[in-house]
Amino acid sequence: MSETESTQTPDDFETLIEENPEAVANLLERLDEEGTDVAALLNGSSGEASVDLEAPGQSPLSDSIDGNEEELAEGLESLAQIQRTGTLDDLLELSQVASLLMGAMDDEMVMSLSNLGSELGGVADTAAEEDVSRGLEGVLHAVGDVSEEEPEPVGAIGFAKALRDPEVKAGLGVALALVKALGRNVGNTEDA
Asked: What's the confidence (pLDDT) of residue 188?
């Protein structure tokens, strides 16, 4: 502590009490509960119950403050800044919501979420297979191509004419193969 910090005038204490009455009251109550002679401490007398903040080893807090005053001041300023901007209140609300969510989660919910995660992992593994990935990529490109231009409505005669187009024939072949594979996989699922 510097000379100016350790020798505060009574006016400084009065200002402190006026600005933070609840905090000062809480401090005095805590000191009284610990058996500290608050009157002797405030009067500056050197009774056994007074606290000498300059004595090393007095408390872990005073030991950690020594030599770290600048960092402590910067930390308190940062805390004050997030308090002024309302961020501290937001963080407190967020922690309360997280606490409520953690309290609301029961074993059944955890198991359900775990099973959902496993199923999604299985879908991701299947989608990552080279053949599946290549097929999905082709389908997505085709959807993109169709989306670029608006398709014209087609009747029965237009459909019959379109069947002569080699691209339509190739697409129908893929669609039929996909329908066949779907039927095969649905049949396997029902049998299992």
From this structure: 67
Q: Which tens digit of pLDDT belongs to each residue from 74-114? A: 888 888 888 888 888 888 888 888 887 777 777 777 788 88
What would the DSSP string read from start to end of 82-130? Answer: HHHHTHHHHHHHHHHHHHHHHHH--HHHHHHHHHHHHHHHHHHHHHHSH
Q: Which of 6-20, 23-37, 95-109, 114-128 has the highest mean pLDDT?
A: 114-128
Task: Say how many CA atoms lie within 13 Å of 79 toward its Cβ.
Answer: 6
What CA–CA distance (Å, rounded) separates 67 from 50? 23
Angle at 179 between CA 187 and CA 189, to 5 degrees: 20
* Cβ proximity of 54 and 44 under 8 Å: no
d(CA 24, CA 16): 8
pTM reported for the whole predicted model: 0.34
Q: Which two tokens stand for residue 178?
A: 């996909």
Dmax over CA atoms of the chain, in Å, equals 109
Residues in the chain: 192
